[in-house]
Amino acid sequence: MNDAVSVLGSDQPSTVFSGNILISECGWDKIFSELEVLLRQLGFRYFTYSSVPRDLASKDSLFSVSKRSYGVDTQGSLPEHIVSRYYREVATLDPLWSVLPTSAEVLVTDVRAGSSTPIVESFWEQYNVASRAYIPVGKHADKPWFNYFGLYHGKSSAEFTELYKDISGSLLPLLERCHKLLALDGSKETNPYVRHAVFSATCTNILRMTAEGMSVKMIADHLGLTEEGVTYHITRAKKVLNARNKTQLIARLYQSGIL
């Protein structure tokens, strides 16, 4: 694992959080507002809720770190101008992105201990952030992308590690609960395939009908397209999702949240 990133355990007892954030009727704004208040009480300066494709670090990825500068992948309390500037200027130099896409563990980066690049360190120091924690949430083992919370703290890595030991027992379940509530209200909101329009509306329609068992001819007649046009969209989808056949394609469409 890269020296710039460490993995933290989560088996320590901790403080119990309280608040209306656990109410299932909460919308996105309410959840983010309540979560920000709770995290600020613990000294966190900002937080983000985002998604990351597992192949983000690959040269052949459909996505790229630079595309995230538009802000569509990141929500939370981290100001938009910081998000945009980070992805535009320093993200490609941040060792985090070679680790996070394939990690299922909590990751913490220390930006003041010389284990990151000077540019990354300098960037976050401008905003009084000394430690960043990235926490994967949800059942994501079989998905090509997953959601995570990014937490930004002013404490050094060593100090933050001690704090994390005290709060992780309540913090992690709270973030999982927030994720579930957010997913109930907008599962497409952070889906990178949807956000980045990997498949057009027409293509998605074709894929949905394919999953429902309709033949190429039936789909073509229903949408007023040629059979060649329908086949093109299905073939492209197979290539994009690296599916060998139609059965595997349908499975991956559901795994990726496209259908």
TrEMBL record:
Gene Ontology process terms (BP): regulation of DNA-templated transcription
InterPro entries: Sig_transdc_resp-reg_C-effctor (IPR016032), Tscrpt_reg_LuxR_C (IPR000792), WH-like_DNA-bd_sf (IPR036388)
Cited Gene3D superfamilies: Winged helix-like DNA-binding domain superfamily/Winged helix DNA-binding domain (1.10.10.10)
Record GO terms (molecular function): DNA binding
Pfam hit, one: GerE
Stretches assigned to the HTH luxR-type domain: 192-257
Top-level taxon: Bacteria
Protein name: Helix-turn-helix transcriptional regulator
Species in which this protein is naturally found: Pontibacterium sinense
